[in-house]
């Protein structure tokens, strides 16, 4: 079995996908993660944790510093760590994941969305891979698209979702079903990617080895 390292793992959205692709996954996060779903967890700094001994490394640096329209008021803007993470990962088979606002900071990123995997969520994320990665066809807008797609943000589903479901009550189960995740809290879901993304990328990496 191949061993993967999930840096900045949070509760393990990427970890679950890598497990489904066939990896043993160790997660690293600076904060305790009581609901982490992987095979092993280490509370530590992803910027200093030793990287040797793993076949594949996944990194999801904090996205807040790259998010478009995020207001911080008098608070300091979160650090942008992609360049620092890339420098660490350069010798390794790896992927760096982040939000669409980080596009200018990533090298030839591939975009994935829930609609590519028949999920119920519009969640565009970018992936810089050290190996070739060809994304599936993408359509999450237009008349031919199922408008039940939700957005996992502070605002919940778009208004059109409610028009399609008169009288329906939005709750966390809506997000769980849309993301393919059933073990996270609402706040953890906001920071997660659907496991389907990481499963797709993990299988693509294993195919390059074959």
Enumerate the spans where pLDDT stays under 50 for 5 or more consecutive residues.
Answer: 142-147
Q: What class, by secondary structure content? A: alpha/beta
Strand content: 15-25%
CATH architecture: 3-Layer(aba) Sandwich
The major pleated sheet works out as: 7 strands, mixed
| Terminal CA distance | 14 Å
Helix count from the secondary structure assignment? 6
Oligomerization: single chain
CATH topology: Rossmann fold
CATH homologous superfamily (4th level) name: Vaccinia Virus protein VP39
| SSE sequence, one letter per element | EHEEEHEEEHHHH
Write a structural description:
The chain has a single domain, classed as Rossmann fold, CATH 3.40.50. Helices cover 25% and strands 15% of the residues. It is built from 6 helices and 7 strands; from the N terminus they run E-H-E-E-E-H-E-E-E-H-H-H-H. The protein has helices at 13-21, 82-89, 159-164, 172-179, 186-191, 195-209, and strands at residues 3-7, 24-29, 40-43, 56-59, 94-98, 110-112, 125-129. It has a 7-stranded mixed β-sheet with strand order 3-2-1-4-5-7-6, sandwiched between helices. Helix 2 (82-89) links the parallel strand 4 (56-59) and strand 5. The two termini are 14 Å apart.
Gist of the model:
The chain has six helices and seven strands. It has 210 residues and is an alpha/beta fold. The protein has one domain: Vaccinia Virus protein VP39 (Rossmann fold, 3-Layer(aba) Sandwich).
């Amino acid at each position: 079995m191949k061993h993967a390292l999930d840096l900045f793992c949070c509760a393990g959205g990427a970890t679950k996908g890598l497990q489904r692709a066939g990896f043993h996954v160790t997660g690293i996060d600076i904060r305790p993660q009581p609901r982490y779903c992987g095979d092993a967890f280490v509370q530590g700094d992803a910027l200093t944790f030793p990287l040797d001994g793993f076949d594949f490394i996944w990194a999801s640096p904090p996205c807040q510093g790259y998010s478009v329209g995020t207001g911080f008021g008098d608070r300091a803007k979160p650090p942008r760590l992609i360049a620092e993470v890339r420098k660490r990962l350069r010798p390794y088979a790896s992927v760096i994941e982040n939000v669409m606002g980080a596009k200018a900071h990533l090298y030839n990123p591939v975009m994935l969305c829930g609609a590519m995997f028949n999920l119920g969520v519009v969640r565009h994320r970018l992936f810089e891979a050290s190996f070739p990665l060809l994304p599936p066809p993408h359509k999450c807008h237009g008349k031919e698209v199922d408008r039940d797609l939700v957005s996992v943000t502070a605002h919940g589903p778009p208004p059109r979702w409610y028009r399609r479901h008169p009288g329906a009550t939005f709750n966390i189960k809506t997000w769980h079903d849309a993301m393919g995740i059933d073990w996270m809290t609402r706040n953890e879901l906001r920071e997660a990617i659907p496991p389907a993304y990481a499963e797709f990328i993990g299988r693509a990496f294993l195919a390059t080895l074959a």
